Fold this protein.
Amino acid sequence: MDFAYNPDFAQVEADAPVITTNQRFPIFFEEKRPFFLERIDIFRTEMNVVNTRSIVDPDYAVKLTGKRGKNTFGVMLASDNAPGNYSEEERNDISLRPSIERFLDKNAYIGVLRLKRDVGKENNIGLVATSYHFIEKHNNLLALDGRFRINEQTVANFMLTGTHSRRYFYSPDEDRRIYRTGNGFGYLASIQRNTRNITNNLWVFGRTQDYRADVGFTRRVNTNSIENFNKFRATEKPKATLINWGVNNFNMLHFDWKGRIQDYSTGAWLFFNFPRETYIEAGLEQGYNRIFEEEFGARRTLTRQGAFAGNDNERSTTYQGIFATVSSRINKQLFVNFETFYANNLFDFDFGAGPKFPRVSRAALANPNAPKDPGSGNYLRLELNTTYQPTDALRFALSYNRARLIRNDTDLTAFDSNLVSLRTTYQFTRNLFARARLDYDSIYSSIKGQYLFGWTPNPGTAFYVGYNDDMRYNGFNPYNVNYERGFQRDGRAFFIKMSYLFRKSF
């Protein structure tokens, strides 16, 4: 049993920055808090119906996990004050206060039940139930899943999920949120076959429009997916100049519950493995994307403009792309990995990317308040990761990520995002370390510094001293959107965290 009361869940290790521009759907971040990481494997499922990061700031949380014979179980309960925890500025805003009054300082109540039974040597069948309740937001989920090893090379998985919600749902027909009951259904089935040289995977997956999993992570609803991955890998020759080579192929099709194609893509690439951890791959991808205005807002009528500018209630584009990866251990101290992807005719969804990159569609150039005008453009992504370890104790890691899209219709840059991260660790002893990290985001001109000293004599016992700094350089103030020259500080934090594991044998 694990129990926490009014815990400080400030992360000792913050999330790595990711590119969020032009993203239609949520981005998943891994759990890093020790309380939730304990026995987290029990709650993990193929459809991610339990995502502990949905519990943001609990007043208390309790978890009971274990295994008795062939039965594995997990129960988790939490009272989360994050939904009702508004800032002082929000509480004192006379225009906002009436709409948030009933939510102030109220908690969400969350429950999770996981049961799983082993069947035979490598098979199991399980059940998951989750519940989330907060004022006007109620959600219950029940799922059945299983894993079966058909033979030595083949494994099959399935999951069936039903959800019941009482909450606000957005209606594109009425262009407003409606408080109602919504029932949803989700499914997943996969089969994976691995032999010495060949891998074949097939997945089918879907969620209905009203599917909600408020204790889990849901990237997209009203979609079905058929995905296939195939891999041929030559027999490895450890002492040869060419240790290994192979070819991969993937195919993917998405369509909604009306049968309308949302997108499809196919691609193939060759890869080669050489000595000194040297890996090279290169491939081609092509596909089709189709979007509908009700996914972005109001559905047009005879008397109302829809979410898209112009006369079309949907947009589509066909793209072609090329990608490559090169990585190698240059010497004992230095490892380098470089990846790139370029494609023509990928969608700019016309969201804009902060004050630095306002919308550049034709409709937005004519009227900044015009409806969305998605259009195709040329997209470039670069990623560079290097690790340098001059001694056993000292380690540097540098990463650079860039994403840029230039629209075809206006020849203007929709966004150009650059992320740079530098991380340094010095291991004084096996249990004593110091770590520093700097992250730069060009979209927001932000510089985040994270500095940590840690002592971890054994699992469960630890002492941390840390300092975090959040600054901007020649950027826009996030509160009033005014441009400010030089360095500006948005926040800083100093913290000490301690934990001690009491051991007693019986």
About this structure: DSSP finds four helices and 22 strands in the chain. The longest helix spans residues 362-366. The radius of gyration is 25 Å. The helical segments are 34-37, 88-91, 97-100, 362-366.
